[in-house]
Amino acid sequence: MGDDEARSWIRGDETAKQMLSRVLKDRAFLLIPPLHRVPLRAGNVVEITGASTSAKTQILIQAAISCILPKTWNGIHYGGLGKLVLFLDLDCRFDVLRLSQMLKHRLLQANWLGNGAWWQLEESNVKSCKSAEEKTKTVFDEELYASCMKRFLYVRCYDSLELLSSLKTLHYRIQQQEACGSQVGVLMIDSIGAFHWTDRLSSSLALETHNRKSLSLTNVVETIVQELKKLLLVHSLVVLATKGTIYEEKYPANENNRKVSSNDHFSGNVASKAQQPPFREFMPSSWQAFVTHKIIIRKSADYQSLQTGQQNLLAYSLEWLQPQLSRIDRFIVDDSGIVIVS
């Protein structure tokens, strides 16, 4: 880094006028289902919790496609945000072919419908879509596909130190993109607890050394949170982070029975009960305080599968814990992506 770049880094990133113009133009926006119940604003941190194979990464991919797609292109309405996505893969299992498949399906659906609002269709209408042979004959805009894929920035990290290094360089990467006229909309982390056990083991091994503080699990997470806060102070981002569960509580088969009753023996402390997550929390308090919105994903308790055409697909339920909503959405994952079924 040269002297001029070092001085520009030390100086303020923007003037008060630039800051006000940036903040005032940032408005709340809605992502497509199943993250459509609560409007999100720059600075929000959404934690998506669920067991393994609970479609958490599929939700991130669908949200990413909604972000990288433009609002309109050549007279066709796609309903996207036209912004960049920063994807930090900590599980090291991300499937870029799945992203490409879902993006192409969105482009084909928008061309076929003419308005891009494919997710507003009811399940019965989704079933009556064109056959796969007819869809393959539909031509989508290759230039639009390439520009969308360029808005998806992927980083793979194998441990917490690599994650910290990536977070420290994200500011410079975002500045480079903004200099080219692109704006970053969403930072995705999949999954935030991927290195929990290795960092915990490192903390125990550090008892025999004089480097315990630097290897402490709590210290590492606090540093990660600090770096994320620095990014949110300078850039208009929404953070979406997935997290696996360790021990999830068992609920009745009917999710409607989980509503708090006045005769419940816990009714005297409903507020504190509502704040308790339905799973055992393992992330340090610094991360828990950093999160502004919480979602939990489960395999549907009412039914395990839905018969959709010739496919037998698993059904999942999505519940907002923070803010707490009474509605529980149920969805399936098919070749096109996530489809709300109730």
TrEMBL record:
GO MF, one example: ATP binding
Q: What is this protein called?
A: DNA recombination and repair protein RecA-like ATP-binding domain
Q: Which GO terms describe its biological process?
A: double-strand break repair via homologous recombination
Which is a Gene Ontology cellular component entry for this protein?
Answer: replication fork
Tell me the ranges covered by the RecA family profile domain, including all copies. 20-246
PANTHER family per UniProt: DNA REPAIR PROTEIN XRCC2 (PTHR46644:SF2)
* Organism name: Arabidopsis thaliana x Arabidopsis arenosa
**What InterPro entries does the record tag this protein with?**
P-loop_NTPase, RecA_ATP-bd, XRCC2
Highest taxon listed in the record's lineage: Eukaryota
Q: Which UniProt keywords apply?
A: ATP-binding, Nucleotide-binding
Organismal lineage: Eukaryota, Viridiplantae, Streptophyta, Embryophyta, Tracheophyta
Keyword check for ATP-binding, yes or no.
Answer: yes
